[in-house]
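Progress report, Aim 2. The chain analyzed during this reporting quarter is listed below.
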Amino acid sequence: MRRLVQGNEAVFRGAIAAGASYYAGYPISPSTEILNIASGWAAEHSDFGFLQAEDEIASANAVIGASLAGAKSFTATSGPGFSLMQEAIGYAQKVGVPCVFVDVQRVGPATGMPTMPGQGDILQVRYGSSGDYTPIALYPNSVPEAFNLAVAAFNAAEESRSPVVLLSDTFVAQLNEVVDLDELEAGVTVAPRE
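Predicted structure tokens for the chain:
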């Protein structure tokens, strides 16, 4: 059914379509809707694990642990939280842990103007953690792309055995478009967990 869908909702639904079964996160604008949707989903689906952690560091490490235990797992944050996750992301790169980190970018740390739209985390994705690795990053430009690239991020994580970053920003996250999520989901091909 066609209806208004927000970018953050499309990311979450794409993750579910890709087989995600665990979410750990900490609220931070403008990614908080993903955490809220995940919480509601977990309340209705007992096979979906959910953790609201004490901070972004714990969220990142919980996602890594869940993946190592066999769950397709992910988290969502914004620039300041993404900075805190860098050591865990580097570790996951080094030991080959498939998982997805959603970074809904904003201008900068703190509140007020810094929570406005921005795209300043692109270099942080590439150079944020220590070590020699080249991360996979995807960046949607619309609500349907947010869904499709969320699926692609999980597939890429499984195929590469590494964390994948789904970059978004406030524009895409808060954008509402008329979309048929069931139609998008019907075309999904899912990489299996091996």
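The radius of gyration is 15 Å. The first strand starts at residue 2 and ends at 6. These observations will guide the mutagenesis work planned for the next reporting period.
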